[in-house]
Amino acid sequence: MAITRLGPNQDITAAKIAGQINFKNLIINGDMSIAQRGTSTASISNNALYPCSDRFQFQNGNLGTWTASQDSNVPTGQGFSKSFKIDCTTADASPATGDVLNVAQKIEGQNLQQLKFGTSNAESLTVSFWVKCNKTGNGQVNLINFDANRIISNTYTINAVDTWEKKTITFSGDTTGSIDNDNGSSLFLEWYLDSGTDFSSGTMQTSWTSRSNTDRNAGTTLSLGDSTSNYWQITGVQLEADTSASDFEFIPYDVNLQRCKRYYEMISDGRLDSDGVVATAMCHQTNVIALNYQWYPKRTTPSISQVSGTNFFRFQRSGGVEDFNSIKIYIPNATTGLIYSDDGVTATTGQVGWVNMNSATGYVALDAEL
Q1: Residues β-bridged to residue 192
Q2: Looking at residue 4, what DSSP letter applies?
C-alpha cells in the first residue's frame, strides 16, 4: 500500500487533494503559478521584496532599475504555464562595491529536519530549474545555512541566448552546520546575477564552509546590470534531497495557493476589483469598526500590508456609507486577531455592514514572510 507523506505546511486534506504527491520539492511555488501580489512590479531600484511570484524574493541593491513580472513565456512541452522574469530598465555597468542583484527563496528550518544537517548522515541536495537569458555566461547558485552561517556554491552555464535551458546542480549535505527546528529562515537558495566587489572579490566555495559575503558572487560572469537589453527568467525550480534531479513535481493550484498563504494572504485587491469586498464589519464604537475576517494560519504573527490613502475603503451599512483610509490589526497571532479601522469612520454603535475597496490602486493583505 502506498503511503502519502505530508510535506511542508500540509494537512491531511491537502494530502488527499494531492493524491500520491509526496512534496519532495522543498521550494514552494516553483512553477511560479501563484502571484497574489500581482503580475508585475516596475521601478525596482533599492529593494528586497516579493514583487510578483509568491515566495520568490528579488533583491536589487542600487544596481540599476528593474521590472519583475510573472510571465507566460515558458519552456515548450514541459507543463509549465508561468515563469518569473526580471527586465533591466535602467542600466548600471559599473556597480558600486556594495551593490547586489539576486533572486532567492528562504525555507523554514522545521521543514528541513529530514536533511539531517549537522550529522554524518546529512543528505545531499539537488536543485534543478529552467532558465532563459539574453546573455551567455555563468551564474552562481548558493545554498546558505543561516543557522550555522555556512555556504556552498556552484555555477550553471547559459549556453544559448533567448533559449530555455534546464540546469541541475547537486550540493553535498552539511555534516557540520545544523539547522534549527523552528519557523525561522534557515536555508537560503539564491541565484546571483550581478554585484559589486563586496560580493564578488572572494572565491566560490564548492564545499560547505563559513559564509563570507565576498564569495556569494565570485563565479558569476553574466553582469546583468550592464544594459537595458538584459533580462533573466526562471521556472520549474525544484530542490530535493537526492544526488540527482527527478521530474518536476506539479501540485494542484489550490494546494500551492494554500502553501503560499502561510506567508502572505491577499484579502482584497482593488487593482483587480476596485469595489471588491474585504469582510463583514460592525461598528464597535462611534469611530471604530471591527472586521470579521478569519485568516489562513500564518508562519508567525502577520502584519497588515496595504496600499492605502484617502477614502480607499468603504463601510456600507444600513442607513449610510462611510469612507475611510486604512485598516489596522489588533492583538493578532498566527491564526487569528482583530482587523479594524478607526480612520475616518463615524457610525452608530452596533450597526452591521460590510467593508469593500473604494480604490483601483489600493489593496490590503496579511504578511508573515521570512
Answers
A1: 102, 140
A2: P
